[in-house]
Amino acid sequence: MTREWWRDAVVYQIYPRSFQDSNGDGIGDLEGIIRRLDYLNDGTETSLGVDAIWLSPTFPSPMKDFGYDVSDYNGVHPDFGTMETMDRLIAECHARGIKLLLDWVPNHTSDRHPWFIESASSLENPKRDWYFWRSAKPDGGLPNNWRSVFGGPAWTLSEETGQFYLHSFLKEQPDLNWRNPEVERAMHDVLRFWFERGIDGFRIDVMGMILKHPDLADNPVNPRWRPGDRERSSQIWLNNRNYPDVFGAVKRIRRVFDEYPAKTAVGEVFGTAEEISAYYGDDREPGLHLAFNFQFIHEIEPWHTPWDAEIMKRIVRDAERAIPAGSQPCFAFGNHDRMRFITRHNEDGRGVERARAAAIVLMGLRNTPFVYYGEEIGMEDVEIPEEQLQDPARLRTFGRDPERTPMQWDATPSRGFSEAEPWLPYGRADRNVDEQFADDGSLLSLYRAAIWLRKRTASLREGAYRELESLDGTWLFERGATGAAAAAYVALNTTGHAVRVAVPSPGTVALATLRSEEGRRVGQHIDLEPLGAAMVIADGERSILGR
Ligand code: NOJ
Question: For residue 206, how far is its CA from the centre of ligand 1 (angstroms)?
Answer without folding.
Answer: 7
